[in-house]
């Protein structure tokens, strides 16, 4: 684990294979998770790419900062991290809120972005009432009070078997996040609408989604793809909101195929 201060916030992160000659990928994970959700994906990529993973403020080992947040706060943290390592161009791989953060990064610094791999995300997610209800539940009763409905959106029923130790581990990951950080991040999603930014994207993009995603269903992710000229769209069978965990081999195959289409990026 590595740490760096971006502005007034210490950001926990990992960098694999830092090499100016390698194309760089920035992985941006979902609400209520930390950078370990990418472990099954990055192991296969580290020899060919510089990989940057980080915990959003209010998550994992990063500072809480000043919640409630804006998506732009997370984008500024990500941009600061790239600048810290001297990375001038990057492929963004954003999952759920990570996709909103990717949109904000493109909005702020399009010069940094050579391609975007959107996973289980959209230009606008949920309604203000939905997020207000979630915020109140977490602040009043803790994250554990919403564990079961969240898990039913994150994972398919076969994955949620009681005997699946991995599933129990991801339940613990969610429960151990900061309630203030989680609620503050919900507020950022509540207030985010990147519809116009999506229409302006002029780099290669692929939008993927788990077939059984209960948080950002396939039709919502397809609506994002429809906003972006030339974007591609793929559904991952046998997965819900976190296909990088439930279907890592398919997720990785799609990511590698996408990377191979980008000018100057190694063939997958």
From TrEMBL:
Domain AB hydrolase-1 per the UniProt entry, residue ranges: 23-132
Enzyme class: hydrolase
Single annotated GO MF: 3-oxoadipate enol-lactonase activity
UniProt KW DNA damage keyword: no
E.C. number(s) listed in UniProt: 3.1.1.24
Keyword RNA-binding on entry: no
Keywords: Hydrolase
Full protein name: 3-oxoadipate enol-lactonase
Organism in which the protein naturally occurs: Rhizobium helianthi
Gene designation per UniProt: pcaD
């Amino acid at each position: 684990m590595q740490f760096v201060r971006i502005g007034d916030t210490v950001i926990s992160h990992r960098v694999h294979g830092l090499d100016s000659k390698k194309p760089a990928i920035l992985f941006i994970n979902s609400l209520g998770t930390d950078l370990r959700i990418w472990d099954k994906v990055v192991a296969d990529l580290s020899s060919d790419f510089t990989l940057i993973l980080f915990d959003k403020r209010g998550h994992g080992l990063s500072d809480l900062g000043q919640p409630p947040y804006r998506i732009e706060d997370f984008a500024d943290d990500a941009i600061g991290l790239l600048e810290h390592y001297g990375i001038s161009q990057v492929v963004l791989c954003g999952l759920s809120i990570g996709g909103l953060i990717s949109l904000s990064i493109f909005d702020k610094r399009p010069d940094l972005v050579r391609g975007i791999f959107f996973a289980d995300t959209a230009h606008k997610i949920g309604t203000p009432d939905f997020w207000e209800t979630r915020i109140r539940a977490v602040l009043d009763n803790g994250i554990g009070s919403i564990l079961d409905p969240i898990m039913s959106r994150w994972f398919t029923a076969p994955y949620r078997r009681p005997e699946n130790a991995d599933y129990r581990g991801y339940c613990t990951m969610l429960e151990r996040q900061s309630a203030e950080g989680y609620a503050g991040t919900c507020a950022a999603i509540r207030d985010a609408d990147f519809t116009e930014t999506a229409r302006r994207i002029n780099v290669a993009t692929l939008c993927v989604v788990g077939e059984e995603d209960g948080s950002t269903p396939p039709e919502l992710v397809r609506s994002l793809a429809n906003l972006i000229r030339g974007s591609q769209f793929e559904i991952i069978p046998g997965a819900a909101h976190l296909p990088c965990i439930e279907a890592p081999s398919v997720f990785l195959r799609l990511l590698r195929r996408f990377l191979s289409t980008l000018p100057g990026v190694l063939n997958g």
